[in-house]
Structure formats: C-alpha cells, structure tokens
Amino acid sequence: MILGRRSLIAGSAALLAGCDTVIQQPAARRILFLGEDMHRGLQRALVNRNALAPEFTGAERSPFFRPNGTRDPGTSEYAALQAGKFADWRLQVGGLVAQPLSLSLSDLGAFPQRVQITRHDCVEGWSAIAKWQGPKLGDVLKAAGMRDAARYIVFTCADLYGGAPYYESIDLVDAFHPQTILAWALNDRFLPVMNGAPCRLRVERQLGYKHAKYLMRVEAVASLDGIGKGKGGYWEDNVDYDWYAGI
C-alpha cells in the first residue's frame, strides 16, 4: 500500500513536540519527509495549482482552533502593539514593487474582502476547520505595483526564532491564488494572539507551517538566495522541511 502525504504526516506526529520544536535527529527528518521529492514532482506535474481548496459550511467548523507554532511573540515591541490593540501596527509591503505600502488594519479592511471556511492541516498531524476573512494577497500586491522581476513573496514576522524574525515564502502561483489571503479575522472576530494577531497569511493549498503568523512585512523578491540560508523559510532552512508544502 502506498501511503499518502497526510498518512505520513500523521504517522510522524509522534516524533514532534510541536511545530516550534526543531528536530535534531537526521532519522526523524528522513521519516517525516519520506517520499517528498516524488510527491512534489508528481503534484507540480499533475495537479492544477489554481484549483480551490475544499470549503466548508459554518456548521462544520471545529469547536476550537488550536495554535500552531508560536503562541505569543513575547517581545517588548509586540507587547506594545498588543497593548494599543494594534492601532499602531503597520504591514510593510515592499521589495520589487513600484509603490511601497504601509497598511493598518483599517487599510486591510478597506480592500475587497474574501471570507472562506477552510481546513488547516498541520505538520503535527492535526487538522481544524475555521472561518477566515481578509483581503486577497494578490489584490494587495497589485496595489503596490509588483515589478516584472519578482518571482517570490517573502513574509517576515514579529515572532523570533534564535533571536531573528520568523520568515516564510511562496511563489507567485500561490501568491495570486484566490484563497491566499491576509487574514485579520478568525470565526468573525479579530485574530487572537495565539492564532497570529493582528494578521496572518492563509495559503490554503499548503500545510500549516507555510501560513506565517504575526505578519510585519511582505516583500517581493527575484530570488530566495538571500533569504535566510536560501531555502525560503525558517523550517526549510533549519529542519529540512519541504519548501513546497502543497496538499
């Protein structure tokens, strides 16, 4: 019997203490990503990456949406933003764009909004269904006037790993996917801190570690070579997670 990606993830969950725990043992990494190269190649070749992820009804939402990764950035800068109910928070949109943007929560709310009820699949082996709201990332990038040289979108966050901001990246296929949004609301309320307040990425065709929380900066770049160690994300650079985590 050939194991599917989700079966491999669930079976590997016992190896993990959480998404924010670095796996040091090479054997654990090999088990976690057994068959990743084959899966990635087949998926990119055979699956329409523009297809929509499944959406659900309100009645199908999970009673509780548990946090993945960091529960609270715990820095003085983030604490100050939280104390002010994120009134002073700004999302910086820059890099290879014609018009850099500095967006407040009100600014994000002024864009056309997408509301979607989707399932979050975490590398820990759990899933949950929740309702998300926010503007499409593609609409924000269009407002900034992305330059032709841009190939990837990099997200820099308020939570720190090893003293440096957490980071992730996606390509333009996922950046302009209609279900890729900058979510500021979860189940009709502002995001709780544990779920990434005030704004997080939702990239619904990929696993949970790609859904960067506590967003501070969105940057269009031509290459991932200068991002971290060059693999495109913190977990990719440090724990050999796969950069393309499509499901």
UniProtKB/TrEMBL annotation:
Pfam families: Oxidored_molyb (PF00174). Keywords: Oxidoreductase. GO terms for molecular function: oxidoreductase activity. InterPro entries: OxRdtase_Mopterin-bd_dom, OxRdtase_Mopterin-bd_sf. It is an enzyme of class 1 (oxidoreductase). Its EC number is 1.8.-.-. Residues 86-221 form the Oxidoreductase molybdopterin-binding domain. PANTHER family: BLL0505 PROTEIN, PROTEIN-METHIONINE-SULFOXIDE REDUCTASE. This is Sulfoxide reductase catalytic subunit YedY. It comes from Sphingomonas mucosissima.
